[in-house]
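Have a close read of the entry that follows and walk me through the local backbone shapes. See right below:
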Amino acid sequence: MGFKCGIVGLPNVGKSTLFNALTRTAGAQSANYPFCTIEPNTGEVAVPDPRLDRIGAIAGSAQIVPTKISFVDIAGLVRGASKGEGLGNQFLANIREVDAIVHVVRCFEGGDITHVEGRIDPIADAGTVNTELMLADLASLERRIVPLRKRATTGDKEAREEVALMDAALAALEDGKPARLADIPDDRRTAFGALNLLTSKPVLYAANVDEDSAAAGNALSQAVEAMAAGEHAGCVVISADIEAQIAQLPGDEQRDYLDTLGLTEPGLDRLIRAGYDLLGLITFFTAGPKESRAWTVPTGTRAPQAAGTIHTDFETGFIRAQTIAYDDFVHLGGEQAARDAGKARDEGKDYVVVDGDVLLIKFNV
């Protein structure tokens, strides 16, 4: 089950530097000029989860397989992108293909990196990108809603319901708000998502700071955090330059380098987890001598559908799932001990998987 986060922002704010560090590759060219990233680059990144290592150690697994999330480095946007300026059309098309947006904003002064608009103002930068996305959504909705309104007047129930969703989105956009802040009933959220509006996607702001501000942030990043809170978006303070340096160090030297900066963990770990949380995802585990593996499913997934992420046959022939809570698995010392203590439960088709569950699927095809 694949999930993609698109890394976006104005040119020269650190998108490709961040992407290179994320993927531990030099696949995205970093250069001090706009549009150095022309084709989106995609990299899969393991989601940091120390629980998996503990489960694998207890199970004596020969292999540890983490769950992954994909990041896509998308070409920089400029003012007028909604009308095709710069690489606007390509930029917008690439964003439509991702599940969530990591919006990088520049929160550092000085340096030899040229800002495309000649000033350091992360709030204005975010506004430029968000405005272009909202304008693109407005144009899309205004184009699509006309024939739907005609169908709705003939008594087409499906058309009426879709028009209602579009009207709610239009009301938010015309008020200068992203579509994700539209007033949509909970039971219509899935249908609303099917409209595939750019500004309905969840957003995580990455406030890219200098090395000295990596631990505590600065005034610019604090302004971004306040903006994100007002938009119901996430925010992570990160130094792309530091992360790029960490990515080049051997594992045993990374810890020492972080200590000298007053950091407890790489910012990328926080960003990856935040992206995972942003998408409303949880992790369940399978464990055995051959391998221990983490699996990704949306919050609220039932046991048969979770089994289907392992193999389609598991969902088709699902009988039940032996379920052990992570804490029980670890504290008791594994599957057999959990069984002996009565902590291994057999759950049926209606069971909603909980983050951290260790599952053994029983099926028959």
